[in-house]
Design goal:
The chain folds into 2 domains: 61 residues, no CATH class; 58 residues, no CATH class. The protein has a two-stranded antiparallel ribbon. The protein is elongated, with a radius of gyration of 24 Å. The two termini are 42 Å apart. It is mainly α. Helix 2 packs across helix 4.
Length: 135
């Protein structure tokens, strides 16, 4: 079990927080946090999670997330490109009398909607490959 101080905050968090607060108090204005401190923050985030660590230490969640991915031992919050995408046959969705719509959503939330006029054909597999496979 982790040692806790009277405040109920784990000792590993308070130690790094103290170092960061000292750096903030003594740094040159708008200078980046030293790499040594970032490495300590990344190690802590591996144990405690990115969001909890960023919040406890008052560091940028986005910066910490990027550093976790670069360090190679963190987890990218969003999965990489899929090696296989299953396409199931489904009834066409009507958007207008006799027309259809094809909608795709990528892993990062990007959306593609294609509306087809009656009789138009579309190679859905090729569109999915291009849309979902791009980076």
């Amino acid at each position: 079990m982790q040692a806790r101080q009277r405040t109920g905050i784990p000792r590993d968090i308070t130690e790094i927080r103290t170092e960061i607060e000292y750096w903030r108090a003594t740094r040159a204005r708008r200078s980046p946090m030293p790499e040594q401190l970032w490495q300590a923050v990344v190690r802590l985030a591996r144990k405690r999670g990115v969001w909890a660590t960023a919040r406890a230490l008052k560091v940028s969640y986005e910066s910490l997330s990027r550093r976790m991915v670069v360090a190679g031992k963190g987890s990218d919050p969003l999965p990489g490109p899929a090696g296989f995408v299953e396409l199931r046959a489904a009834p066409a969705l009507s958007w207008a009398p006799g027309g259809t719509a094809v909608e795709m959503v990528g892993v990062r939330g990007e959306k593609l909607t294609i509306r087809l006029a009656p009789g138009e054909r579309l190679d859905v597999a090729a569109v999915a490959h291009t849309f979902l496979g791009r980076r």
